[in-house]
Please model this.
Amino acid sequence: MPESLQQKLEERLRYYKDLGIRLFYRNRRVGIVLRTGEAKEPSAEQATHRPQEIVLPRPRVEASAIAANARLQRIEPVIASSGLSLFETVEKVQDDTLLKIRDDIGECTRCKLHKGRHKIVFGDGSAKAQLLFVGEGPGADEDAQGLPFVGRAGKLLTQMIEAMGLQRKDVYICNVVKCRPPENRAPEPDEVATCSPYLLRQIDVIQPKVIVCLGAVAAKTLLQTNRGITQFRGEWLEWRGRKLMATYHPAYLLRNPNAKGEVWKDLQKVMAELGLQLPKKKPS
Ligand code: SF4
Model:
């Protein structure tokens, strides 16, 4: 194998390792296949033109996880052409920690969002939080400070957390993508696909009892759905054995204050689930 190709392959394998993908199948007839799915016998033409590919292993889906999903409302994931949803290709990392995940991210340049960022916004809060908030991506204030939800929308989220009788240090807050999308646009599918395995590892480490998705991007990413958030906002959903609720993003509430009441109803359900005392009156 030429040295340049070997280097590229090593970089690619390091990248998959950082994402938690550890097992690869080598097909000796065609080399390594860079896709998920079953290895197929190559045609003579494929063998000539695609000598280097990797087949990622199909993960085992545990029957207990499927049974748990059946008890609550289930959103059918959009299955990629490979036959796998996004997270099914990510293997659990043994003895993973938030520190290890942050180290693996490093000074990440794996997607184009690195070009405009100042600071990577990894996440903030308790590594043992029962409640995890997942947003979309950092904004300008977050990009400058390296902390999630510290701008105007962040202040509103802090107020919401405090209205629940908690403090920010009691929960964990992170985003689907760790770098600020330019002009605060929504992260693009390739950026989400590249960065969200780190989110999955964060969730696996923290093991929260409840996940609250703030806005459509977080909800659609975790649930792997194209359905609009209004179709399932405020409903308890099962996600990999955990309870998940999607609600509106605080930035949406800044533009549409009338929707605050809906979000407060959602958060009251979360409080009940966590055994928190419900306040007598709604926060302003
Ligand atoms: S958004 Fe995620 S994958 Fe993209 S550069 Fe930042 S840390 Fe890396």
User: Anything to note?
Assistant: Residues 25-42, 45-70 have pLDDT under 50 and may be disordered. Residues 57 and 157 are 40 Å apart (CA to CA). Residues 105, 108-111, 113-114, 120, 177-179, 191, 194-195 surround iron/sulfur cluster (CB under 6 Å). The first helix runs from residue 3 to 18.
